[in-house]
Amino acid sequence: MSHKNPIIAITGSSGAGTSTTCTAFQHIFRTLDIDAAFVEGDSFHRFSRPEMEVEIRKAKEAGKYISYFGPEANDFGALENFFASYGETGCGKIRHYLHTFDEAVPYNQLPGTFTPWQDLRANTDLLFYEGLHGGAVTEQHNVAQHVDLLIGMVPIVNLEWIQKIIRDTSERGHSREAVQASIVRSMDDYINHITPQFSRTHINFQRVPTVDTSNPFSAKDIPSLDESFVVIRFRGIKHVDFPYYLQMINGSFMSRVNTLVVPGGKMGLAMELILTPLIEELMIKRRQARGQVDWLGT
Ligand SMILES: Nc1ncnc2c1ncn2[C@@H]1O[C@H](COP(=O)(O)OP(=O)(O)OP(=O)(O)O)[C@@H](O)[C@H]1O
Ligand SMILES: O=C(CO)[C@H](O)[C@H](O)COP(=O)(O)O
């Protein structure tokens, strides 16, 4: 964790909605005039899509599983070093994993491949990570320790699977059977490397549908925001202004002392109301760590 070069990470499983909710952060950064460097967690996959297919086959022959949720398919050490480097110097190297033809064509590459590593833009105000492992901890690596604000994006699991199946079949060219097989293959890593992160987060946003999702494998569409609630759990944050949120967010209520529930359609508003002061605080600490004093003297 570095006050000088803060890191915000939004962490969630594949299909949880981390990319989708980036727009709320972009909006906050624009409002606060923050120049954020964006990095996608998929950059830290170890393998391209064809290489991963080979690894899956090899693991199967050895009676094992390999998945995008675990350390075999992701370089946690490189991610930890990247966060440490950004925290210390504001520098680091990034690349993109190109999922679709639309993403790959501008680079003249195939879907399922990586762009070359390149230097992060210089002089950014903070780093914004979006991906699978922003809060990962293993015996060898501790990614979470470098993150100043860790957010979990975690729909209940049936909804997460619906989002993944529909997105991967309609946008990423995978068959329904292949996506279901990847969910099964990922289960150990999901339990060992994805879910534990949500106990390390400062805030979790958990979308809960109010329509029947009891058979996610037959779902034809993704429940909309208006067909859901969002459960927002706070941990280790001082002075959470619950009365203000309850007043500002129509239809919200508290279900526990640390938990606010908002109608799905208010998720963007809730994110902005809750995250804006936390991000402002990071920027104040950043200025203080750099010896710059605000006009308010803070
Ligand atoms: N709040 C939401 N309401 C409705 N649809 C959503 C919501 N969040 C995500 N989705 C849909 O779920 C699918 C998966 O979302 P998204 O691509 O953002 O997931 P992700 O966490 O970034 O996944 P990955 O890490 O695999 O890229 C998308 O089709 C997206 O439109
Ligand atoms: O979203 C994912 C992990 O976050 C994907 O499962 C992973 O990036 C591999 O992508 P693809 O199946 O399109 O090759």
From TrEMBL:
SUPFAM superfamilies assigned: P-loop containing nucleoside triphosphate hydrolases
EC number, UniProt record: 2.7.1.19
InterPro entries recorded: P-loop_NTPase, PRK, PRK/URK
Species of provenance: Rheinheimera pacifica
Domain annotation Phosphoribulokinase/uridine kinase: ranges: 7-214
Protein name, as recorded: Phosphoribulokinase
Keywords: ATP-binding, Kinase, Nucleotide-binding, Transferase
NCBIfam families per record: PRK15453.1 (NF011997)
GO MF annotations, alphabetized: ATP binding; phosphoribulokinase activity
